[in-house]
Amino acid sequence: MSSGLEDNLSLLLFRLHSGRLLGINLLKVNEIIPCPTLTRLPSHHPHVRGVASLRGAAMTVIDLARAIGEVGGSDTRDGCLIVTELSRSRQGLHVHQVERIVQCSARDVKRPPAATGSGAFITGVTQIDGRIVQILDIERVLHDLAPPLVAEADEQILTPAERDLLRGRRVLVVDDSQVALQLSLNTLKRLELDCQTVRSAAGALAMLHAHYKEGEPIEVLVSDIEMPEMDGYSLVQTLRREADIGSTYVLLHTSLDSTMNTERARAVGANDMLTKFSSSDLSRAMVRAFETLG
What residues bear 4-aspartylphosphate in this entry (predicted)? Predict the structure, then answer.
């Protein structure tokens, strides 16, 4: 079992104009500001309110309610912006109001009920002071607005020798976001890796053990960090204590990008860390992994 500090999760709680209560990992939040004057762009995405200037740099402002299928506010002067910087981009999320920051355990965050379907834009649910809090799938919101560019020909990224090194090698990807999972899978399959996927840390551990028992162990685990019930850090710590699968090479693949996260990844025993999502960077990370493994 990992310690409470390792499991600790800080959430910023906020509401949309409908009154819906949502949470976002505080690590994904740069700052909260009043909604500034926006410049509207021709032919912009219907979920984009406009562009704001923040300390001299342009920033896209997303009407979060509309982006997840609700009715947004009619006045940009109402509400505030949650400024996020993740997956290699910065944007402002226009919301009705921010409530407060709360602490909870990652193990108390559960997967969304199956009845919510694939269009729910949430990655998990938890209870705070008796209230249900839905945790926003911000990666999916951003993907729906601007899907990342994926290289059509990864063979141009890698040398023939590097492609030979990867061909047929066994990789497991774990991510609670179906969008992120599919992006990774598309890249890894083009590299001709033998790739499988699961949606939870528990599922990853079970598959790692099963492949080991079958005599075909998974060589590289590509894991998200933010996952319900057991996050990527705890997954690595648990894996490293297992006699059979403890030496598995682990790449933590996350939308979070900071020195603190890299240091923590190394502290728990991860071999490498990569910010989502770049097809070329993921391809290079696979080369590093299998050159290390030989």
Answer: 224
Instruction: Give the β-pairing of 131-136 and 21-25.
Output: parallel
Among 206, 222, 225, residue whose Cα is nearest residue 214:
206
The residues with which 15 forms a beta bridge, in sequence order, are 21, 97
CA–CA–CA angle 218, 224, 226 (5° rounding) = 145
Q: Give the residue from 104, 86, 71, 74 showing the smallest Cα distance to 27.
A: 86
Higher pLDDT residue, 292 or 53? 292
Structure tokens at 15: 């509401």
CA–CA separation, 281 and 286 (whole Å): 9
Residue 76: count of CB within 10 angstroms of its CB: 19
Residue type, 146: A
54, with CB counted inside 10 A (0-12, 13-18, 19+), is middle
As beta bridge partners, residue 250 has: 221
pLDDT digits (tens, 9 = 90+) for 85-128: 876 788 999 999 999 999 988 888 888 876 555 557 888 899 99
Alpha helices by DSSP H, listed for the chain, are 4-7, 64-67, 138-145, 160-166, 178-190, 201-213, 232-240, 259-268, 279-293
Q: Name the DSSP letter for residue 252.
A: E
**CA neighbours closer than 13 Å in the CB half-sphere of residue 233:** 21
Q: Which domains does the chain have, with CATH numbers?
A: 4-143 (2.40.50.180), 154-293 (3.40.50.2300)
